[in-house]
């Protein structure tokens, strides 16, 4: 257990544990009776008799693509053992996942290959089948005694779960494993800012930041179910009919094994300068965990536990980003039904942007010009290049990148659409709650009004001069150019 997280200690948690939240007290959490996993992580979506004759327990793995510290997987193993049945883990692979392209698919496939190896070592059958994920789960679920799901928070994921529940007449249980504190336990409403969510999350941390033991599956019988062979992700990618407008990036490799390796390197080499350098885009002293968290290739609990008993500002800042700043977007998309729409922005932000929509814009660029990095601003062009060639954008530059899109677009609505499109197309960590929340933050969401300026009104502004005062953007440009050369060499070698 972490001795200190966000300035909060286990002793403080025990002292404040007289009330109840959700289904458990802050000090003594209730556990699921079958598995010992925190009860708040487990939700019954459909009741039923698991002894009704099904052949196996099915775990539909979709959001949490890992065999390491996966509460949904361990729950499924426990239930299979209790029911004295085999376990089948499945993944539904579709060619047209919303806004995904070859870049995203290769990273995902690498994660699936890693899962297959890890589950094979544990003698747990794993199958990948082509088709809409909910159709795969429904077809395999018809022969199951119990169906276990992990949990995503986006609209289409919620719709998938509803379809599975509506089509099956067996028990369906969902286990939340991609956040530290379950979303509904942390808060029962949309939070306005990190400062309002932070104390609500902090009081639960000592209960949820704990290791998860692995359990041996007793009946390792492999159900006779067909599966795609994803052991060679590069070769399998060629079989998929996916958008190839953003080619794969081979600076990174997907999967829990690669995530753990990257995390170890960060903690060994860069962690000591994290707080000083995390807003210095010319450096690379960041964890690079966001892409792995996006695909469920690593658990946020696992990352926090690896931080271990480290103290000081570096640990506090890292855990703040990992837990509070990352789980605020989950809260946003869960409680805001229009999270992907401009209309979801706060009224004050939409009002001030509307009041300034006719302001003179010294520079205006089309979406096509922006995508090609054809602006007058070398810092912004470097940010766009970093996105295109590496699939990553340093978070500090992401703010500058987005603010300038607002400043250079004909309307705020056009800017919003452009920012979302470019973000989701090129970034490996795009297309998730953090993307929707972070893009909306550029336009004033979960922020406050600032000094009024042209075009942005009272929405927070960023300037090239400010960038130069706080960082070394010229060195950042040089860093990106070197990365682009490295990627080109890799591409040429691969060709």
TrEMBL record:
Keywords, ordered alphabetically: DNA damage, DNA repair, DNA-binding, FAD, Flavoprotein, Lyase
Region (Disordered) residue spans: 1-34
Transmembrane segments: none
The keyword Zinc-finger belongs to this UniProt entry's keyword annotation: no
Pfam families named in the record: DNA_photolyase
Domain of life: Bacteria
One record GO biological process: photoreactive repair
Domain Photolyase/cryptochrome alpha/beta: 55-183
Enzyme Commission numbers on file: 4.1.99.3
Names of required cofactors: FAD
Molecular function GO labels: deoxyribodipyrimidine photo-lyase activity; DNA binding
InterPro entries on file: Crypto/Photolyase_FAD-like_sf, Crypto/Photolyase_N_sf, DNA_photolyase_N, Photolyase_Class-2, Rossmann-like_a/b/a_fold
Biased composition (Polar residues): 15-24
Catalysed conversion reaction: cyclobutadipyrimidine (in DNA) = 2 pyrimidine residues (in DNA)
EC top class, as a word: lyase
PANTHER family named among the record's database cross-references: DEOXYRIBODIPYRIMIDINE PHOTO-LYASE (PTHR10211:SF0), DEOXYRIBODIPYRIMIDINE PHOTOLYASE (PTHR10211)
Similarity comment: family membership: Belongs to the DNA photolyase class-2 family.
Protein name as it appears in the record: Deoxyribodipyrimidine photo-lyase
Taxonomic source organism: Lapillicoccus jejuensis
């Amino acid at each position: 257990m972490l001795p200190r997280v966000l300035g909060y200690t286990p002793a403080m948690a025990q002292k404040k544990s007289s009330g109840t939240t959700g289904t458990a007290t802050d000090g003594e959490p209730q556990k699921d009776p079958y598995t010992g996993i925190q009860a708040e992580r487990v939700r019954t979506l459909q009741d039923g008799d698991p002894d009704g004759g099904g052949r196996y327990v099915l775990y539909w793995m979709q959001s949490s693509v890992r065999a390491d510290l996966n509460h949904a997987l361990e729950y499924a193993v426990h239930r299979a053992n209790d029911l004295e049945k085999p376990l089948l883990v499945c993944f539904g692979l579709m060619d047209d996942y919303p806004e995904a392209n070859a870049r995203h698919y290769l990273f995902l496939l690498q994660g699936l290959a890693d899962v297959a190896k890890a589950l094979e070592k544990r003698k747990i059958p794993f199958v990948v089948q082509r088709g809409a994920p909910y159709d795969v789960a429904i077809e395999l679920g018809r022969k199951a005694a119990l169906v276990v799901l992990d949990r995503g928070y986006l609209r289409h994921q919620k719709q998938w779960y509803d379809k599975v529940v509506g089509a099956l007449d067996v028990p369906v249980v969902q286990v939340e494993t991609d956040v530290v504190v379950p979303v509904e336990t942390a808060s029962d409403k949309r939070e306005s800012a990190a400062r309002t969510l932070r104390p609500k999350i902090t009081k639960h941390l000592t209960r949820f930041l704990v290791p998860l033991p692995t359990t041996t599956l007793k009946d390792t019988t492999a159900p006779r179910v067909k599966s795609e062979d994803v052991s060679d992700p590069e070769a399998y990618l060629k079989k998929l009919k996916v958008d190839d407008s953003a080619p794969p990036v081979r600076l990174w490799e997907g999967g829990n094994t690669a995530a753990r390796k990257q995390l170890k390197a960060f903690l060994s080499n860069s962690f000591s300068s994290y707080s000083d350098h995390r807003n210095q885009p010319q450096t690379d002293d960041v964890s690079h965990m966001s892409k792995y968290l996006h695909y469920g290739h690593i658990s946020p609990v696992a990352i926090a536990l690896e931080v271990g008993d480290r103290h000081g500002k570096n640990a506090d800042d890292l855990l703040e980003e990992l837990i509070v700043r990352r789980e605020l977007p989950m809260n946003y998309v869960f409680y805001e039904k229009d999270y992907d729409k401009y209309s979801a922005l706060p009224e004050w932000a939409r009002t001030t942007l509307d009041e300034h929509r006719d302001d003179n814009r010294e520079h205006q660029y089309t979406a096509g010009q922006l995508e090609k990095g054809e602006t007058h601003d070398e810092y912004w062009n470097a940010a766009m290049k970093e996105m295109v060639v590496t699939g990553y954008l340093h978070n500090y530059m992401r703010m500058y990148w987005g603010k300038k899109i607002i400043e250079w677009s004909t309307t705020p609505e056009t800017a919003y659409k452009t920012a979302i499109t470019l973000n989701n197309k090129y970034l490996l960590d795009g297309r998730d709650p953090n993307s929707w929340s972070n893009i909306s933050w550029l336009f004033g969401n979960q922020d406050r009004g600032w000094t009024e300026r042209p075009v942005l009104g009272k929405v927070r502004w960023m300037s090239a001069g400010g960038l130069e005062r706080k960082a070394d953007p010229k060195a950042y440009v040089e860093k990106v150019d070197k990365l682009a050369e490295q990627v080109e060499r890799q591409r040429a070698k691969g060709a």
